Amino acid sequence: MIMPQMKSQNLYIDKFTLYLAESVHINSLDEDNRTFLPDEVFETIDEAKEIITKLISYYGQKDKPQVFPVFLNKSKHIGHIQAVPFTEGWEIGYHIAKAYTNKGYATEALKAFLDPIMQYLEIYQIYGICRADNPASCRVLEKCSFTLVSDGIGNYQGSQHHILRYIYENAKQK
């Protein structure tokens, strides 16, 4: 089974295609992405194509990262949202391109994504982990009913940072 398309008032979340490589490349180069998600920076379109090909191959495999593009009004690719396995379960992730931030799109995308991805993965909880110096990402998690469970120094993207760990639990999935 592959995740269904997801929709909200302004956004549409679907599966990746290679057609999006240029947009993925451009969106990945913004300052916030370089700072907070350096492993998701693609310096060339070919790098973006390579990762998109890999992500497409993961669709339908419930033990692999599930990453989906986010579109504004079904046409403009503005970022991505993902659920990624890690040692303690699953972690949510998202990035909205700089030109589209501060408009509520990350919150809207996460609200549209949470229940379907958790149902698909057959999980009842998912983590949100962000750097403390990224208050916008923390606000998104809080607006989506994530609960802060730890605050301290830890490994984030391969180096030590002040990180906040949140958890979202869906009682309906238990």
Features:
174 residues, alpha+beta, eight-stranded mixed sheet, globular
What does this structure look like?
This protein is α+β, with helices and mostly antiparallel strands. It is 31% helix and 34% strand. It contains five helices and eight strands; from the N terminus they run E-E-H-H-H-E-E-E-H-E-H-E-E. Strand 3 and strand 4 form a beta hairpin. The protein is globular, with a radius of gyration of 15 Å. It starts with 5 loop residues before the first strand and ends in a 5-residue tail after the last strand. The model has no long low-confidence stretch (mean pLDDT 91).
Count the E strands: 8
CA radius of gyration is 15 Å
Strand percent estimate: 25-35%
Uncertain ranges = none
Order of helices and strands: EEHHHEEEHEHEE
C-alpha geometry: globular
What's the overall average pLDDT, rounded?
A: 91
The residue fraction in helices comes out at: 25-40%
Helix-strand makeup class? alpha+beta
Distance between the termini: 20 Å
Biggest sheet, strands in spatial order?
1-2-3-4-5-6-8-7
- Number of helices, counting only DSSP H or I runs of 4 residues or more: 5
Q: Give the biggest beta sheet.
A: 8 strands, mixed
Sequence-ordered SSE layout with sheet pairings:
Layout: E1 6-7, E2 11-13, H1 21-28, H2 31-36, H3 45-58, E3 66-72, E4 76-86, E5 89-96, H4 105-121, E6 125-131, H5 135-143, E7 147-156, E8 159-169
Parallel strand pairs: 5-6
Antiparallel strand pairs: 1-2, 2-3, 3-4, 4-5, 6-8, 7-8
Helix pairs in contact: 1-3
What's this entry about, in short?
By secondary structure, this protein is α+β, with helices and mostly antiparallel strands. Helix content is 31%, strand content 34%. The longest helix has 17 residues, at 105-121.
